Amino acid sequence: VYKRQALDRVLEAACRRLGAERGFVAVRRGFGKGRLDVLAVQGLNRVVARALGQRALTLHASDQDSEVRVWSQATSGEDWAAETEADRGPRDSVLSFRVIDSDASVECIVYFDAENQGGVARFDAESIAVATTLVGMLRGAMFREARPSVGVADGVQPAGPFANIITQSDRVMQVLELCSKVAPSPYTVLFEGETGTGKGLLARLIHDLSDRRDHPLVVVNCAAIPETLLESELFGHVKGAFTGADRAKPGLIMTASKGTLFLDEVGKMPLPMQAKLLQFLDDHRVRPVGGTESVDVDVRVICASKRDLEGMVRDEEFLEDLYYRLLDFPIQVPPLRDRGADIGLLAEVFVARASARLGREPLRLTRSAAALLSSYTWPGNVRELDKIVTRAVLMASDDDRIRDRHLSETL
Q1: Strand partners, 220
Q2: CA 320 to chain centroid
Q3: Do the Cβ atoms of 122 and 115 come closer than 8 Å?
Q4: Angle, CA 123 vertex, CA 204 and CA 92 arms, to 5°
Q5: What is the mean pLDDT of the chain?
Q6: Is residue 26 a contact partner of residue 50, using CB atoms and an 8 Å limit?
């Protein structure tokens, strides 16, 4: 049930984000010959949705997977004429796309429509960009719903770059749009936000959406490596460069060649290393510790910081030149307390995951417990919510609900 509810919420958020009046998500098993089942619907009944979905699948039959189509005058065009005559036609503007899971012989159709305003089409190039982002977000929810009916075990983690993204927040949707925009580019990305907000998850998303996805994503926590070792870890060293260097070692930058280097907690990098990082970002050349020659390295750099880098620049704790060099494409990640209903949505997902690990049916939160979760400020953000909910599931092992007493006293 919670999977259906999650899909309903994503569809509702998608309609709101696109400015659509109506929308639905439908799935058909067995390409071209199975029944079309409507999984989620907004603003119209399922009979009309099924008819529009059948026609949309026909119109998308020759399209590539996830190709977005827009009709600006659907009511007067030939493509939708039959449905219009049958009094189940679309609104003026239509936006739809077809998503395919070849392994499971499943195809899904996602449809939105709206009346034009003042003769101006509702869906434009920006709508297509938003829809392209929604393709990945909806893909996991749709196939998670459809696959059990075609013999795939329930609980399988959906594939794709957006598989681990769970949200219905407009602010997070904006962040995902930015990630989708910057992913194909070579720009350096800087994520800023509190601890536990998912900066590492977003860095992986950009890597998976880029043309570097088949090469390594190397993650470096700058706060976890001692200052004396950080240069050697990043840039490597030659044999004999220092005591104990009995062999040459390539650095993590070289390891990430043709892929992505994610520098987490870049704000905790010592000043001398900041200068070396700045030099590397300028020329993309690496010289190992103790070496005399530099080597060109093709690598995309993504950085993240929970510290206020601009404030650190004022306090002379972070190099001003490096700070502005990292501002190729800054992205501010919102804290959980500013993500509205995401607290309840994520809590449901974490309850289901923890229950599955314990081999039991998902528990439900009482209204009082849900209110406690929603009213808390979450300084540890999503990571803290996950831990508290997981503990609550264990504490409620002898109960049929998660109640106030099962939650952490911190709340």
Answers
A1: 263
A2: 31
A3: yes
A4: 145
A5: 85
A6: yes
- Per the rule left: phi > 0, alpha: psi between -120 and 50, beta: everything else, 240 is left
3-state secondary structure of 17: helix
Using DSSP, state whether 237 is helix, strand or coil.
strand
What is each CA distance from 285 to 162, 218, 237, 247, 254, in whole angstroms?
33, 17, 14, 21, 10
Buried b (16+ CB within 10 A) or exposed e, 44-71: beeebbbbbbbbbbebbeeeeebebbbb
Per-residue tokens: 323: 């700070």
Q: Write the pLDDT tens digit of every residue in 16-37.
A: 888 899 999 998 876 666 778 8
- Between 265 and 103, residue with greater pLDDT: 265
Using CA atoms, how far apart are residues 233 and 284, in angstroms rounded to an integer? 16
Residue 361 contacts residue 25 (beta carbons within 8 Å): no
Computed over its alpha carbons, how large is the radius of gyration of the chain?
25
Residues 113 and 73: beta-carbon distance below 8 Å? no
Q: Starting from the edge strand earliest in sequence, which strands make up the sheet with 106-114, in order?
A: 36-42, 22-29, 106-114, 93-101, 68-71
Say how far residue 307 (Cα) sits from the centre of its chain.
Answer: 22
Tally the C-alpha atoms within 13 A of residue 110's C-alpha that lie toward its C-beta: 32
Dihedral over Cα of 371, 376, 378, 383: its sign: negative
- Give me the pLDDT at residue 43, please: 92
Yes or no: say if 14 and 138 are a contact pair by the CB < 8 Å rule. Answer: yes
The β-bridge partners of 113 are 22, 94
Task: Sort strands 401-402 and 364-365 into parallel, antiparallel or unpaired.
Answer: parallel
* Amino acid in the structure at residue 359: G
pLDDT tens for 195-224 read 999 999 999 999 998 999 999 999 999 999
Mention every residue, 6+ apart, whose C-beta is less than 8 A from residue 13: 167, 168, 169, 170, 173
64: closest CA among 40, 99, 34?
Answer: 99
Predicted confidence at residue 138, as pLDDT, reads: 64
Half-sphere exposure of 199 (CA within 13 A, CB side): 29
Average pLDDT over residues 246-267: 91
Identify the residue whose tokens are 């088949």: 214
Token reading at 64? 């590539």
Query: Average of pLDDT values for 323-340?
Result: 93
H helices of 286-339, in order, are: 309-314, 320-325
Print burial letters for 393-402: b (CB count within 10 Å at least 16), e (below 16).
beebeeeeeb
Q: What is the rounded (10 degree) CA torsion for 219, 223, 228, 233?
A: 0
